[in-house]
Amino acid sequence: MLMEKLEGVPLSTQWFTMDNKARVKIMKQIVDLEKQFMSIRSPASGGLYYRKDLTQLQRAISLAVQDDQRGPSEIVVGPTAQHEWWYKERARLEINRGPWIDFRSAFEAPAKRELEFCKQFGRPRLHVERYLRQLYEFKEAQPATHIQLLLDFLRLIPHLEVPSDHRFSRPTLRHPDFSPNNILINSSNDISGIIDWQHAVILPLCLCAGIPDYFQNWGDPLSERLAKPEVHMPDNFNQLNKFEQATVQETIRKRLVHFYYAALTMNQMPDHFDALREENLMLRAKLFKRSSAPWEGDSLSLEYAIFQAFTNWPMHFDDMEPASAVTCPMQFSENEIQRILKDHDREQEIMEELSEMRDLIGIDALGWVPDDEQLGRSKDVVRQIKAGLAEHCNTELERTALQSHFPFDDHDEDG
Asked: Its GO CC terms (predicted)?
């Protein structure tokens, strides 16, 4: 593979130490760049290729038609290159990998892929998130459970369509991981490049809309209102300890970048802004993501999203004419509702604990640290956390969780 060297350093090396003025400058550039590649017109959803790199058996749709003398564009939309479509035995499945010319085809294809995977290759396994395994007493999840949920989701799809000529179903290109690790900046805080496009995919706008994970702050009341945050430190800031000061600074940072991403998007990409603010469109996106995630022992995430669709039924949104009333194909008994809510709340509580531990350790969700100095500090904190938990282990389940499933130990990825 031949690659061009880009100048600059990852934004992640500067992101937490730069001042707020520099962060605002970065956010303006991020939205401007997103506008450029999200505005590219595409005839279908799928992956981007040079025509010469696809076989005659692989479908290809020209990205744009040039003048008659030059013929069709050499850049085409072909099968998706997303990692989850080729992960493990999924590469062997005979399935529709795209391109998809309408909303429904793109919406249902990943669920059909996972359905075939679970039927052919699914096996009982522990939850992919090690910190949740104790909650389920280390019992293996069954692929049959996930198969049924995927079938339930596919039953909803005919009632969740967005017309292919609607602005929210326009095929849209987005970066697959628009995070500080993949954004390069120079010494003037100008973005010099965006890397790691290899799993990029074109999808209907409402299925890929949203504030990138590293820049969103949903759940914070101020951010939910899209109110402009206060950037001045509180009067008692100097009397706070270092941890409390860091917490205040981090809260301001999260609110600031969330607000500027949303405000700039509202001004420059109103269709994208309208989509990310529409609850029932974002619930479609959530259903899409949950049903397309490779099954690795987690079925509650999809079940909870289906339950949310049931509670929001008929899932209309402001920019679409309501269809005739149809009863939700999925129904839940009172006992099922209580069980789903209880399990979801317990998982959320445990995942919040895990997030707090990551913050203390100084790592992101993937375990990355900015430099070797932070790596040493992070390892020390991990040892302290594990030692503290060991002192309070009172049951065999707790001891098993700490000894064999502690999330910050090295593990075999297939274990």
From this structure: mitochondrion
